[in-house]
Amino acid sequence: QVQLVESGGGLVQTGGSLRLSCTASGSTFGDYAMAWYRQAPGKEREFVAAISRTDSITDYADSVKGRFTISRDNAKNTVYLQMNSLKPEDTAVYYCAAGFSGRRVRLGNYRYWGQGTQVTVSS
After folding, report:
1. Do 68 and 60 touch, CB atoms closer than 8 A?
2. CB–CB of 14/121 below 8 Å?
3. What does the alpha-carbon distance between residue 22 and residue 6 come to, in Å, rounded to a whole number?
4. What is the distance between the terminal CA atoms of the chain, rounded to a whole angstrom?
5. Is the pLDDT of residue 55 over 80?
6. Average of per-residue pLDDT across 88-117
7. What is the pLDDT of residue 35?
8. Are 34 and 41 in contact (CB under 8 A)?
9. Neighbours of 112 (CB within 10 A)
10. 69 and 82 in contact (C-beta within 8 Å)?
């Protein structure tokens, strides 16, 4: 069992940056692939980025590629999402998730979820 707590969300202007953090507890963090998803009002939850257990493999949604960077620090049990050049369409609740995956981290079985953190980008 893994408990996940996100932080770092907030209100930012178009073109600004935020860094989200997700800290895990309750199990061995390094055993899990990690991912970020987001859900905008009235829309389904969508994949944003994922990283393998040893951070050697990452994957991004096309909509964030080149602007967002996922990373992890296994010593701190934390995964990060650095978000640059933010757009109003990035406004959503961002969730981190932990699970198991092969090389195709986007398709991992993410079974543990945080409570989410709100990101709002004003135009």
Report:
1. yes
2. yes
3. 4
4. 40
5. no
6. 95
7. 98
8. no
9. 17
10. yes
β partners of residue 59: 50
| Closest among 21, 18, 47 to 35, alpha carbons compared | 47
DSSP assignment of 22-88: EEEESS-GGGSEEEEEEE-TTS--EEEEEE-TTSS-EEE-TTTTTTEEEEEETTTTEEEEEE-S--G
Q: Residues 110, 47: contact at Cβ < 8 Å?
A: no
Provide φ and ψ at 105, rounded to 5°.
Answer: -65, -25
Report residue 27's pLDDT band, with 50, 70 and 90 as the boundaries.
Answer: confident
Give residue 44's pLDDT.
97
Residues 51 and 79: beta-carbon distance below 8 Å: yes
Give the 3-state secondary structure of residue 118. strand
The C-alpha atoms of residue 108 and residue 86 are separated, in whole angstroms, by 26
